[in-house]
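Quick one, probably user error.
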């Protein structure tokens, strides 16, 4: 009886040691992803991209877009993260607009592209006559 208990205890110790080794070898996926995402946000914020409220009279939406786009290019942001990083700098009216825009998108379309975001942002925050004037200016 003593040998059976002793053998079972040895097997249990071996099993637990094996489990601990495996746990130490593979970091949890969610922690790696969260660390990666937070480091990308920190990298973006170090470039001091401007904040856009959408309700301040002298805010220039085109200047905001250009500044944020430049920061994203400098940090070589990936296509699937550019919109989320840009949205991090939207506050107040602009932040609410973004949340609504995101909810209205079809989930099957995948993450929004910069082009989709830019088009929707300009349609919402830049009057049509200003967009048309800008378009003719570059022709």
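Nope, works fine. Designed sequence:
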């Amino acid at each position: 009886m003593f040998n059976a208990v002793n053998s079972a205890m040895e097997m249990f110790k071996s099993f637990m040691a094996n489990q601990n080794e495996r746990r130490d070898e593979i970091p949890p996926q969610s922690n790696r992803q969260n660390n990666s995402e937070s480091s990308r946000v920190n990298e973006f914020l170090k470039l001091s991209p401007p904040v856009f409220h959408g309700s301040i009279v002298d805010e220039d939406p085109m200047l905001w877009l250009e500044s944020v786009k430049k920061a994203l290019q400098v940090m070589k942001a990936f296509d699937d993260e550019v919109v989320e990083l840009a949205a991090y700098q939207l506050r107040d009216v602009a932040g609410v607009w973004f949340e609504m825009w995101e909810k209205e998108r079809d989930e099957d379309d995948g993450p929004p592209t910069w082009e989709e975001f830019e088009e929707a942002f300009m349609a919402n925050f830049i009057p049509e006559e200003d967009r048309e004037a800008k378009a003719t200016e570059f022709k």
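Confidence is low (pLDDT under 50) at residues 26-32.
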